[in-house]
Sequence to fold (204 residues):
Amino acid sequence: MAVYVSHMTRIMMFELLWNRMRVLRKTMESKLDFSPTMFDREVNHHILELEKYVNVYKMQLDNVKKIGHASKLLIFLSLPSYFVYVFTIVLEKLVSKGDQYDLDIMYIADCMINVILPLVPALFAELVTAEVDKIRIHLTRQLLFCSNNALRNRTYDALKFLKLRPFKYTIWRAFSLNISLPLGLISLCTTYTIVMVQFSHVYG
Fold:
């Protein structure tokens, strides 16, 4: 139960970050609409709004940076435990290959939870990255319609900031939390599962 609570805490943390970044993206799409003909008052308003949204984005990244080492340690330790758990299930099935037994629904549910929960934070981190990409695309599109030099320069500065400081959550510079992490784990587990099955046929 404590393990589930630990996973849910990290999931809620990244889900909250994703929701905030999604709200920021939707707000920017609705408020930052540059037209070819704008009055000076509208230009100044758009500049102030753009600076405000960039500051909000910066605050979100700063909050992620303040996440303590305890959460990173739990994510780091969950990976080998995930690997061991998957192979424990595989070995159990290989050892009992000749036995006929009823599959318990609670056992299947427990296996699914233990396999899926450690990967969910990486999926939410990838969703955050997707939202940042959508913000960058929206600002790039607005440049096509913006004719004011001051507003264009501020938009270029915002795009440069997004490029220089993208969302990236790393675990002590060892690996990044993104979609490549669960895909890599699944690929690794699949490869070694095939190897174990082959060895079980040879030496079983």
About this structure: The helical segments are 2-31, 40-65, 69-95, 105-116, 120-145, 149-164, 180-203. The mean pLDDT is 80.
